[in-house]
Design goal:
It is a single chain. By secondary structure, the protein is an all-beta fold. The chain has a single domain (39-279, 292-354), classed as Neuraminidase. It is built from one helix and 31 strands. The strands form nine sheets. The chain has a five-stranded mixed sheet, with no helix packed on it.
Length: 384
């Protein structure tokens, strides 16, 4: 039976460790049971979220490809900017990155640029990606000095070039100092194995790139303190780079065996086209989206075990900690997060309610979505 333990701060719950997790030095475990608020309107698919000073939120909804200003107090929401390629417009809104003076950087993945958003929701200056960052580069963070952190593309697209026959197994993490226009490579991270399929003609080529299911990869995020936290998949430890480098102790875990439910979940996720980004590389009909053929399970290389943590799950908290979501069996839909401190060591573990998905962290707050029977997402706020 579980027992309650009163510590300094929130109420923590110690209980049986879910399959796939092993206790590491009896770290504190917190279970977030009930939200303190739920937004009264639903969303299609939340792709990014940032809490602003004063309690309002910026939210990217991938269904309408819109940036929204959300107010829990009034229950209202307004659209920020609009779709397009002009000033204050975005083609495909992506990550929301805290920036200078409480402003936010909105990553426009298709246009390869960053758009500044003021705390009151006004679109501002556009910042193109540096010329040296070609291909499918993406921004992941910024610090208080205005430096921006990006993951370089594993290959170059442009000037008639396309993806190579075989992709490399790693990509560079780059710090961009805009004041001096200097790019520094801080480290390299393992990227997932990818298969490519080519079809079409020279005037209308289709190149499909599909990551392999549950492929091991490193995860990273940048913090406002000028640090980059990397969860290494090899022996599952955390490295900190940039200002105040550190290396943490490897985390013990028991591998989670892949099940038929996991295979079904992966194939179902491929049917979601909201995250699809089309890159046109020459040829007529620029901007025309071609529907790729539906993949079958036989086209993929299925591993025997899942990696220790989920892909694209690294999140930085306002106090400089690194959150990483663990892989658990498909039958166990309680999300579990390992939280690493400034030294890279496992400090605590947090569990969300069953079936929830983490979408952002704020000042002592956790934002998650629950999905109803119609597939709509409802935004919840939890206090820590």
């Amino acid at each position: 039976m579980a027992r309650l333990v009163r510590l300094c701060g929130p109420l923590f719950l110690t209980a049986a460790v879910p399959a796939g997790l092993l206790a590491q030095g009896r770290v504190p475990e917190q279970r977030l049971e009930k939200p303190d608020a739920e937004f009264q309107e639903s969303f299609d698919q939340i792709g990014a979220l940032r809490e602003l000073p004063g309690g309002k939120l910026l939210v990217v909804d991938l269904g309408p490809k819109a940036l929204l200003m959300v107010d829990f107090k009034t229950g209202g929401q307004t659209t920020v900017g609009r779709n397009g390629q002009g000033p204050g417009e975005y083609q495909f809104p992506g990550e929301l990155i805290p920036y200078l003076g409480d402003s936010t950087l909105l990553v426009d993945r298709v246009s390869r640029r960053l758009l500044t958003v003021s705390p009151d929701g006004k679109m501002g200056k556009t910042i193109p990606f540096p010329d040296a960052m070609q291909g499918l580069a993406t921004a992941r963070g910024a610090d208080r000095k205005g430096r921006i952190y990006l993951q370089a593309s594993p290959f170059r697209i442009g000037d008639g070039e396309g993806p190579p026959d075989q992709l490399p197994d790693s990509a560079a993490v780059v710090r961009w100092d805009r004041a001096s226009d200097r790019l520094d490579t801080l480290t390299r991270v393992k990227i997932p194995a990818t298969k490519m399929q080519r079809s079409g003609t020279s005037n209308a080529r289709i190149v499909m790139m599909r990551s392999q299911p549950y492929a091991p990869q490193d995860e990273w995020i940048a913090t406002a303190e000028g640090r980059v936290g990397v969860a290494r998949v090899g022996d599952y430890h955390v490295d900190w780079y940039g200002d105040r480098a550190a290396r943490g102790t490897p985390v013990s875990y028991s591998p989670v065996k892949l099940s038929d439910l996991d295979r079904t979940a992966f194939m179902d996720a491929l049917k979601n086209t909201r995250n699809r980004i089309v890159v046109n590389n020459g040829g007529p009909g620029g901007g025309r989206e071609m529907k790729p053929p539906e993949p079958t399970a036989a086209e993929f290389d299925w591993p025997e075990y899942k990696p220790p943590f989920r892909s694209r799950s690294a999140v930085a908290s306002s106090d400089g900690q690194l959150w990483v979501q663990r892989h658990t069996p498909a039958r166990d839909s309680v999300p579990a997060f390992d939280i690493f401190d400034a030294s890279g060591n496992l400090a605590s573990r947090v569990f969300l309610p069953k079936g929830r998905q983490l979408v952002g962290l704020g000042q002592g707050t956790v934002y998650a979505v629950r999905i109803d029977s119609d597939g709509l997402q409802w935004l919840e706020r939890y206090k820590r």
